[in-house]
Amino acid sequence: MTAKLDELDPESELGARAIKTREAILEASRKLFLERGYAGTRVNNITDACGISRAGFYTYFKDKHEVVNLLGKTTYEEILKVIGLWEEIPNPCTLDDVRKWVDAYFTFMNVHGAFIISAAQAAPMDEEFRAASRRMQMRVAFLLGVSLRSRQAEPTDAPEALGLATQALLDRSWFYGHVQQLPVDDADMMNTVAVTIMSMLVAKPTS
What we know:
The protein is mainly alpha-helical.
């Protein structure tokens, strides 16, 4: 009988190897979903990318849908931690405070950005997954928007719109530099994003 992953001793050779293999499957899937889309990625593409057999894949996951669900859950949990960092930032904040937060967001994207972009472009077709993805995305946007609104010179009436617009700025900025690999220095990009976010906080809108 095959032992479950959470029953393995992580300090043992078997436990460490199992965790490493599982993480390799998830990492390969993130990249392949971005390159090929969900529908265009087959289990054998994943196994080829991380150098395991199909049997090895099915030791940890029943299908690629389970993989994408886990990636979504993990991404959601991790982005909530990044949004939560605003609770530790002084109010009013400085540009340096915002710059450090943008750096934390880009660090998050270095791990989960491939999944975020691929999920937006070519997610599984079933409505259950899409509905869950929309709920999580709007929850994140609302929480980010509320955090930013509390610092605005004139608070917006639509925190979810503020959150979505800020996420779009962050995600696409990361995408251009890390996926399309356009010749823009990462530090310059993060600084520009921080300045833009800061301007949304301190500037009063004109009618």
